[in-house]
Amino acid sequence: MGKQKEVQHMEANKKSLLITGASSGLGRELAVEAAAAGYQLLLVARSEDKLKQIAEELNERFQTNVTLYKADLNNPDEWQSALQQIVRENQRIDVLINNAGVGYFRLFTDTDPTQIETTMRVNSLAAMEASAAILPVMLKQGTGHVIMIGSMAGKVATPKAAVYGASKHSIIGFSNGLRQELKPYGVHVTTVNLGPMDTNFFDTADPSGRYREASARYMLQPDKVARKVISSIGKNKREINLPSWMGIGSKVYQLMPGLAEILLGKQFNKK
Predict the structure, then answer these.
(1) Catalytic positions, written as ranges
(2) Partner of 7 at 20 to 30 A CA spacing, among 47, 108, 119, 191?
(3) Residue range 51-83, pLDDT digits in tens
(4) Structural domain for 88, as ranges
(5) What is the pLDDT of residue 4?
(6) Which CATH number fits the domain that encloses residue 95?
């Protein structure tokens, strides 16, 4: 370990990091990278068994302190109860990563109302509720970092992802406003906007596998994304856009949405 990394590890070892949706996919990789960096972990997920498995692995590999909280973010009462417990049991929380997410890639007219509610609740409302609970702790500390796992779908809406895009667009807008509010108080807000990533997200979003197959050549790897996210902690970084070419494309879309939809219509319809 180099001298700079060793110093960073020692500093992180004094800090705690909360991750939602931590039992699989990107959340799991974020936990691994954070543990490797020396953070004390507060992990939230629906599956207690999976949480226990990752806690055992992290303790064995990194001898890090891991505290587990079982909660279904789609259940408002259960999530509020968990948040109250987290705040009650942890006097210091330095980083909040709102990572939990769900999606259903289908035409809006074929989308069940319960799927609409679940998508908006887990992707958007639960993240806002977590921020509302944890921010008073960070403000009292005078330091902190809120990281929102957004999506390129929140910047560029596509067919069969109207609801998912709306949930992520909501998070991007929330983050942009929150960032300005917290700037005077030493708390950073970063939005991580991702293209397709090779995780079990698609087991629910696209059971047919067609979109995964069509996106295979530019699928992001969750371990590499996690490394970039964890390395951004403490930095006043507005956004992380991956892959970078999609980030550039989203800016073009914002300038010329009609033309972009004509030129990229075939690509947009791959779901």
Answers:
(1) 164
(2) 191
(3) 999 999 999 999 999 999 999 999 999 999 999
(4) 3-268
(5) 47
(6) 3.40.50.720
